[in-house]
Design goal:
With 160 residues, the protein is mostly helical. The chain has a domain of 107 residues: 2-Layer Sandwich (rbstp2171). 44% of the residues lie in helices and 8% in strands. Helix 1 runs antiparallel to helix 2 and helix 2 crosses helix 4.
Amino acid sequence: MLTLNPTPEPFWIDLPEGARVQMRPISTPAYLEAQEASREVLREVDPAAKASAGQLVQAQVAFTRALVQRGVVAWEGIGDAKGKPVAPSPEAIDRLLDWYPAFAVFERQYAGPQLEAQAEKKGSAPSPGGSSTRKGATRTAAPARRASPARAAAKPARKG
């Protein structure tokens, strides 16, 4: 069952070096802005040509950056070159995302689940009760026979 939470709570993501970042859940506006940031990169692609691997990577980076920029609430353990704590700001977030180990964590734990959910939607969705429960559906395989209790017992592996 889908549970609607009117005020989703921010959550913490642990980064390397003992740092952590508090993130708000991804909202619809944040997701759509991230998609637009990704599309902006791909608009430079010649419509007659396919996007190169580098352009696709840049689009993916733009998507993750946009989500993280909108999602950061607070952080701990992040400082400047002298070790002085730095407050989150668009510039500081960009510097953090330029450090690949942090970017990889955000991509895997924050943006990644959103990308996976979108990828799953692109396939055809199964019917709620499975295809065999739909009216007019035809079987693609014969039903399995019930095995006798003796046949259902596991057989030892053959040596050979």
